[in-house]
Design brief:
Elements lengths: L1 H32 L7 H26 L17 H8 L9
């Protein structure tokens, strides 16, 4: 019984690592495709977290679309690493350096 539990734990850990690696591969491809560069490792970790959260929102929205509950499909784009507020500011032409 202990061996079975150990085996299950090992398989779960191996899958968790591969999921993390998949996310990192997607993230690196995203950065390359959209020419994303970040000023620090801290900012990159933040942007990765936002990217993953937004991808989750996109997937949930597209599931609802497939069920006829939404009228359009979403996809990853150059704004996927932005918070909603940052996205809105970008579209409105907001420039923080000029704001006082």
């Amino acid at each position: 019984m202990k061996i079975l539990l150990l085996l299950v734990a090992f398989v779960a850990a191996a899958n968790a690592v591969s999921i993390f690696e998949l996310v990192k591969e997607e993230w690196n491809a995203y950065k390359l495709q959209h020419r994303k560069k970040y000023d620090s490792e801290t900012e990159e970790r933040l942007r990765l977290k936002i990217y993953v959260q937004n991808k989750h929102k996109i997937a949930k929205h597209n599931q609802r679309f497939e069920q006829g509950q939404e009228k359009f499909r979403l996809r990853v784009n150059k704004y996927t690493d932005l918070l909603h507020e940052e996205f809105v500011q970008t579209l409105n032409g907001f420039n923080r350096t000029n704001a006082k």
